[in-house]
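Workshop exercise sheet. Pairs work together: one partner reads the sequence aloud, the other fills in the structure field after running the prediction. Swap roles for the next sheet.
Pair: D.N. / O.F.
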Amino acid sequence: MRVTIADDHRPFAEGLAAWLAELGIEVLRIACDADELLAFVAEDPPDVVIVDICMPPTRTDEGLQAAEALDASHPDVGVLVISTYSETGWATRLLRRRQRGVGYLLKNSVDNVAVLRDALDRVRAGGVVIDPEIAVNLVTQRTIALQLESLTKREREVLRVLAEGRSNAGIARVLGIAARTVENHVSNIFAKLNVVNVNDGNPRVLAVLELQRAEGRSPHRQ
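Structure field:
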């Protein structure tokens, strides 16, 4: 198997290359950014590319952009994305663009040589590999989405006003409905979102967090 690595953290990339060599995998080149990676692949396409998500110049999603570019220019080259961050948004974006020969692993999983070798083999063969931690998050996210879909239109309206930090009386004033009606809606929301019987948090806070997660917002950013 022939592999090209793209990671601006040189010690990590060189250590990874040494591990791969011990496994009998040939490392063609090590790129320090997405542009260099694309140039290397155009010059000598590998079987699989291992690319970090966060690389220069902005250290945001250059690796994903490179993966998307490779899907268009070299669809037969497998792409194994690695990252320090367990971001379901990045994983979803990657899988929407590529349905075969693709993988997303956390860097702490790459430390396990057996896991790395298995991932490379599967990606090279056209399979899909997702780090277990990310897979759990994806399933959780989907579960939250399904729970929110079970809410009625009015319950969604109540939840959105609740997310503004308003009391039941405040929600009643904003929506122009009776306070007792709000109480019933809030009770139904808690039940449908599975946050009724909680011992370690405020149900109102947990319900808001469910909404924010489903909409891809951090509770610390508006």
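Discussion prompt: Residues 196-202, 217-222 have pLDDT under 50 and may be disordered. What would you look at next?
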